[in-house]
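ingest -> validate -> predict -> emit
validate: passed (alphabet ok, no gaps, 457 aa)
predict: started
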Amino acid sequence: MSIVCEIVEQEGGARLPLVLGPAGRIVAWRDGRGIDAATFLSHVRYVAAALPDAPSAVNLCEDRYAFLVAFCALVLRGQTNLLPPSRAPRAVDEVLAAHPGSYALGEQVLEPAPAGYLRIVWPDSAPDALSDDVLATVPADRVVAIGYTSGSTGKPKPNVKTWGGFHASNLGNVARLSSIAGEAFHVVATVPPQHMYGMEMSVVMPLFSRVSVHAARPFFPADVAATLASVPPPRVLVITPVHLRTLVEADIDLPPLAAFVSATAPMPVELAQAAERRFGAPLHEVFGSTETCVFASRRTATDDDWSLYDGVRLHPQPDGTLVEAPQLDAPIALADIVTLHDDGRRFRLRGRNTDLLEIAGKRASLGDLNRRLLAIPGVLDGVVFQLDDSDIIGVRRIAALVVAPDLDEQSIALALRQSIDPVFLPRPLRKVQALPRNETGKLPRSLLLEMLGRVSS
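emit:
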């Protein structure tokens, strides 16, 4: 039987449940056991009572169940979850400074810890287990999170999220995944809950649907397999292209999967096809941003076009695309260039206006240059990007950082010359041991520029 999330109209506006479903529904898996909604809510109330009075807090919990508890405890107290682009001390300090009066909380002992850090704990047994008729509700218009962009294209920017907005965006994700895995499935995620992709797939979804999530964030292939084996089928693995490549190349089997879900970076078609052959499950890539949340998906191994979620409309613009979606109070402009098909219900991505290059009257895209770099045999990882400063004739140079232990820089440049116009050859092109990818596989631009300066000096 499908669980329906009813909007309750009360004085002061519509309200939505803090967690959906009956008290006995499993919300999360941790330490080999399922945690039901009643126990979860008792933990939330326990932690909420211990929080200081403040407008907002940086949620640094690494354990996904602890994050869920802290997230909802803040919501109950009317405080906003601040989600920095990473948990690096500098990133956390910058977000705290941007929100005076805020604090940080987490489940671990941190050394060093942010100023005013609060370590949360809750009892092993469920205090005051709750029944169905006392489940908490939250105003739909309450601001519950401010998510910061990754900084891959510049300085991280804040994006406000309401409880009703999360509910609206979740309807599209659940509808798409339920058609593949059924209404009740179990998520294992390798991405952090602080990232908006991880937030949607491993925090919001277990709260607003019959989905449950494992508390762990497994990294190594063997850990991924063991974590998947600890939850019952149907299983859905939420992952990134970088992590998926490691899984495909590892000599390890996974328990049967209903589906993979991927985001944060373009999924190479060849990798999607290899993953489906290797593990026998469909791979669905989702499309969205911190600004919009997810609004489309595709099965990358078979589809070039993306299918929009219900209620979403795109309006192509000369310099990007305007997105209308149920979770947005007003349309949001993205830098993605698209063409629409099938009465506007499907689209094909043509690139981003920030990726388009024009040098000496010739055009190319950074996305295409990156694909050609990664296609070179022996290149394990790499990135092509445009520098900020112009040369003496006013052209912004293109640079590349490449991980290729068995190749030299000259042979990499020669291989690139075979597939791209010489005006777009990266100069400089530098070999490095590893790229500064963050927890979701993205590459903050500031770190790329810093690394290029080190290897070029």
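Residues 1-11, 130-134 have pLDDT under 50 and may be disordered.
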